[in-house]
Amino acid sequence: MIPVITDYYDQATFDRMKAFADNMDTPLLVVDTATVSRQYDELVNAFPYGNVYYAVKANPAVEVLSLLRDKGSNFDIASIYELDKVMALGVGPERISYGNTIKKSRDIRYFYDKGVRMFATDSEADLRNIAKAAPGSRVYVRILTEGTQTADWPLSRKFGCQTDMAMDLLIMARALGLEPYGVSFHVGSQQRDIGTWDAAIAKVKVIFERLREEDGIELKMINMGGGFPANYIAKTNELTTYAEEITRYLHEDFGDDLPQIILEPGRSLISNAGILVSEVVLISRKSRTGLNRWVFTDVGLFQGLIETLGEAIKFPVWTDKKGELEECVLAGPTCDSADIMYEDYKYPMPLNLSIGDRLYWFSTGAYTTSYSSVEFNGFPPLQAYYI
pLDDT digits over 165-184, tens only? Predict the structure, then answer.
């Protein structure tokens, strides 16, 4: 079915975003900054004991960064380029964490020289680089977690280490003159199974207790990463439900005196604030008896919809055409056979959908502009507007 607008936006907000987009050439992304602000407030209210470190990679627009800076957010940074962009907006180093565990020694030093003193790690080689390039800094070790297969955009084993190695690294950090500060995990992006946080927090508890009892190391922080879901086709719980359950897990394992808690939201803050608008370029069938039309649009995997790879993230797609529906394949405009968004999971589109009509992709504020290619097939990066 065509999505119901009011399941994703209040009608006035949608009308305002659509009116703006309809005066612009496609493809484009329109982001409602008031929605970003409201969702940040909802997160802070849901986790009053937490410190928010916005994951800049989700959407690094100056408009988003400036808004969150003014609301008091901290920032999770993945590269020297993100660091320069955030610090150019007047954000101090005390509000920044270098959350990427894969980094050059000279980049560690760059962060250190800028005043950053909190670094993520998950390997001995990286830890030794931190000790040399950022002496005396705080380090937190990222652990592997189970259950990421229940996330729509699961995380691979590229990041994190097993529990026993995490403890070895934190002991080594102390020996190298660093401050063993805490443990981080990520349960997978667009995670709908709340129980995955329970299992991860239980793992962290074991690390805290064993290091305190056996090695005299008192860890101070848990970084719970991101993972809170946005509003796509599949149903999710409200943020307050996640917060209530996660808070219960924390108190069950750590009592009333919680360590410092860090949250690194990206998708959950930004996705629901955006609408990506595309134009239908072509409609065809692959045979005279083909049951499904192919609808080609001027936006695809390489213009910001890479998260449809493997049909992982299923964005709600709306059109103002009405009438009888037929399931369609949705594909992009480039000369690459991989540029198909949805072929197995077919989208219902009105039979009277025509070339030149517009499609409105809901909940696309995050991981669209930042994933958009520079010049594949000559297409420019996705244009974005913040209203």
Answer: 999 999 999 999 999 999 99
Which residues have a Cβ under 8 Å from the Cβ of 366 and sit 6 or more positions away? Answer: 58, 59, 230, 266, 267, 269, 270, 271, 274
Q: What is the mean pLDDT of the chain?
A: 94
Cβ(189)–Cβ(151) below 8 Å: yes
Count of CB atoms within 10 A of residue 347's CB? 22
Coil vs helix vs strand at 182: strand
Q: Nearest-5° angle of CA 8, CA 14, CA 16?
A: 160
Cis? peptide before 316, omega within 30° of 0: no
Specify whether the CB–CB gap between 139 and 108 falls below 8 A. no
- Round to whole Å and give the CA distance between 359 and 287: 25
Q: Is the dihedral of CA 97, 100, 105, 110 positive or negative?
A: negative
Query: Residue 173: CB partners within 8 Å, gap ≥ 6?
Result: 121, 127, 131, 139, 141, 179, 180
At residue 156 the predicted structure's pLDDT band, cuts being 50, 70 and 90, is: low
One-letter amino acid identity for 108? Answer: I
* Nearest CA among 108, 179, 106, 111 for reference residue 141: 179
Diameter over CA atoms, the chain: 74
DSSP, collapsed to helix, strand or coil, labels residue 149 as helix
- Domains of the chain in start order, with CATH, are 5-9+271-386 (2.40.37.10), 60-265 (3.20.20.10)
Q: pTM of the full predicted structure?
A: 0.95
Here the tokens at position 165 are 């190695």
At 226, list the tokens. Answer: 């991101």
Alpha-carbon separation of residue 210 from 164, 168, 184, 214, 260 (angstroms):
10, 11, 16, 6, 18
